Amino acid sequence: MGNGSSDSGGGVQSVDRAVSVLEILARLGEVGVTELATEIGVHKSTVSRLLSALEDHELVEQAHERGKYRLGFGLLRLSNAVSGQLDVTQQGREICERLAVELGETVNIAVLRSHYVVNVDQARGPRSVGSHNWVGELTPLHATSSGKILLAFMSADARRDVLADVRLTRYTDRTVTSMDELERQLEVVAGDGYVVSTEELEHGLTAVAAPIRDHAGIVIAALSVSGPVYRLDDGRAREVVPAVVAAAAAVSERMGYRG
């Protein structure tokens, strides 16, 4: 990557150089400051500053031989976060497609990103052709079925931290805008193991969601079925709950959860 970006502010250039350091360490293993400086084409003091910043975040570490650096265990946290999301879509794809065909509605898998929900995979049933593509779209935690699942199964401390940054925006007259009411609903969701959300994010849209767990039993995603209210009214939504819960449990089993 040479000297990296020519951005006059130096910020992008520093990022380019830091990425270059990580790529070199990945390729060569343990590398010294002088060798890194030669590879990147910068002064050793610049490399030392980059290594210090990367070391603070555990992305690199010093090897036993003084002056040599290698990749750090902090990279595992990043890779696990990505691989977990990729795994849940891979393991859930067939199950979601089968459920979409069975129910005729749209099936999504969503995960937490900061204080939003992001849909990472979607399957469309035969009656949902032309429906909205939610993949990659950020949606609010408090006004979606998936968001309420992810909130309900967090630890109390984690939920408090997340909700501290959440503004309970009103999207319809059914949107929960009271933190006390939201907490009450989340208790019910945690007890029931599923949630039905009717017209909380959009008028005319109903969704049913259930939790997906990893091998340790931690809820890492939500599986939801959504459709128009005229098809997925309250009665129909309650009817599909067992199928949604079973599908989420099937994905959880594929993720290593044995219940």
Coarse shape: elongated
What share of residues are in beta strands?
15-25%
CATH homologous superfamily of the largest domain?
A: GAF domain
Main beta sheet: 6 strands, antiparallel
How many beta-strand elements? 9
Helix content: 40-55%
Residue-averaged pLDDT, rounded?
Answer: 86
Count of individual helical segments: 8
| Span of the ends, CA to CA | 48 Å
**Sequence stretches where pLDDT stays below 50 over 5 or more residues:** 1-8
Structural class: alpha+beta
**What is the rounded Rg?**
23 Å
What is the CATH third-level topology name of the largest domain?
Beta-Lactamase
The largest beta-sheet arranges its strands as 6-5-4-9-8-7
Question: What's the number of structural domains?
Answer: 2
Short description:
By secondary structure, the chain is an alpha+beta fold. It has eight helices and nine strands. The strands form two sheets. The protein has a six-stranded antiparallel β-sheet, sandwiched between helices.
What would you say this structure looks like, in words?
It is a single chain. The chain is of the alpha+beta class and 259 residues long. It has 2 domains: 11-72, Winged helix-like DNA-binding domain superfamily/Winged helix DNA-binding domain (Arc Repressor Mutant, subunit A), CATH 1.10.10.10; 80-254, 2-Layer Sandwich (Beta-Lactamase), CATH 3.30.450.40. It is built from 8 helices and 9 strands. The strands form 2 sheets. It has a 6-stranded antiparallel sheet, with helices on both faces. Helix 4 crosses helix 8 (234-254) and helix 5 crosses helix 7. Mean pLDDT is 86; it is low at 1-8.
